[in-house]
Amino acid sequence: MGEVKVADQGQLIAKAKTCKDPIIIFGAGIVGEALAKFCAISGIKVASVCDNNINKVGNKVAGIEVNHVSSLANTYPKALFLITTADIMDVVSQLKELGYQNWIAAGPMLRLFDLNSVEFIAPFEFVEFAVSTCVMCHDGYLNPNKIFLRSVDVIVTERCSLRCQDCSNLMQYYDNPKDCDIDEVNRSIDRLCEVVDNINEFRVIGGEPFLNKDMWQVCNGLAKQSKVRKVIIYTNGGIVPKGENLECLKHEKILVLVTDYGPLTRKSATVIDTLKKHGIAHYVQPAQNWTQCSSIFKRNRTNDEQKSVFTRCCAKNLFTLSNGRFFRCPFIANSDRLGAIPDFNRDYVQIMDMECDLQEIRERLYNYLYNVPYLDACDYCNGRFLDDPEVEPGIQTKKPLPYKNVRQQ
Ligand code: SF4
Ligand code: SF4
């Protein structure tokens, strides 16, 4: 059969129904659950659900046991995979490496699925958002000439009300943190939107974004962008938004995601009450699944080791806009801000390079997204892997952690 590259729901269902090989759903998240339920209703027999995340192994998704991808070969030497992860290119590469040849970008199968017709444990808005994100990502994958970005972080401040020693955004190293120039941030957002086709979500982050009293201007700008579908504000719940920073959150595109740090952020109850009182869409989630991924020093890996780290890294598509530059991940974006790595100019796309026309920036971005084997800065990074041991979230450090500024020598 090989890869089935069609976006028509009816054709995909017919392929899955007539397939003689066992059918495996790849991805044990919300979309995997939605697809398993859809398959049950549509008469598609699913043999297994698999995932790379060791923490999901042994769980059940719609009554089907989750296996680790690495354990499939013995039981299922041949299979048809229905992929439900948004970062589908990584999964396709992994399946090829494992010797499999048959898979379907399954997002389009869910295009017309009435999610109200089945029950989910997660809130409905989350299920709907996850499923529609998957559908859009897979549509992008099936249209390779388009540039579709699943998620882009935009940094509006280096300041934070906490100083977590394992912050994956490297806030623990800033000894003189500053707010970003909002006009410059908005200009880089405008330019990025001019060169890409669609951005599923923009995440406004810091540090703590509400510490920048002008962050509302970024939110209002993003809400007006027709190519941006959703805007998510990531707050630690330590600062109660007020004035324009509160007003801007009332837009239908905006969702506030409050991470619950327990007793570290005593104001979080007031933040949540304020959001509720003003009818602002929000979601509270615990600080969880942290790993040690923030140490910055040169590892001196070989090129092959670099490739392996980059390939396995689950943060390589956490795109980040910072200082007018587009980065693959928050580690490089913040190491660049800190001067903790050399200025590796192939490790980012200079969105604000006014000597380049938009077409040239688009081509650079396309190449950066789809054709790099690894980044030079990866040698300064631990990498983030799904089977990394977890560390306790939110441990505070009193003073900024030391690091070497390699650009001040
Ligand atoms: S709350 Fe902690 S993890 Fe979040 S940005 Fe601040 S320092 Fe980093
Ligand atoms: S390994 Fe490379 S892509 Fe992954 S987080 Fe580190 S620098 Fe970023």
Describe the structure.
With 409 residues, the protein is α/β, with parallel strands linked by helices. It folds into two domains: 9-142, Rossmann fold (3-Layer(aba) Sandwich), CATH 3.40.50.20; 148-380, Aldolase class I (TIM Barrel). It is 31% helix and 17% strand. It is built from twelve helices and 14 strands. It has helices spanning 9-18, 30-42, 72-75, 88-97, 124-142, 182-195, 215-224, 244-247, 268-277, 303-312, 330-338, 358-370; strands at residues 23-26, 48-51, 60-61, 64-68, 80-83, 103-105, 148-155, 198-205, 228-235, 254-260, 282-286, 319-322, 325-327, 348-350. Strands 11-10-9-8-7-12-13-14 form an eight-stranded mixed sheet, with helices on both faces. It has a six-stranded mixed sheet with strand order 3-4-2-1-5-6. Strand 1 (23-26), helix 2 (30-42) and strand 2 form a beta-alpha-beta unit. Helix 6 runs parallel beside helix 7 (215-224). The chain is globular and about 60 Å long. 41% of the residues are buried. The model has no long low-confidence stretch (mean pLDDT 94). Bound molecules: iron/sulfur cluster (SF4) (2 copies). One iron/sulfur cluster binds at residues 309-310, 313, 315-316, 328-329, 331-332, 375, 377-378, 381, 383-384. One iron/sulfur cluster is lined by residues 160, 162-164, 167, 169, 171, 206-208, 236.
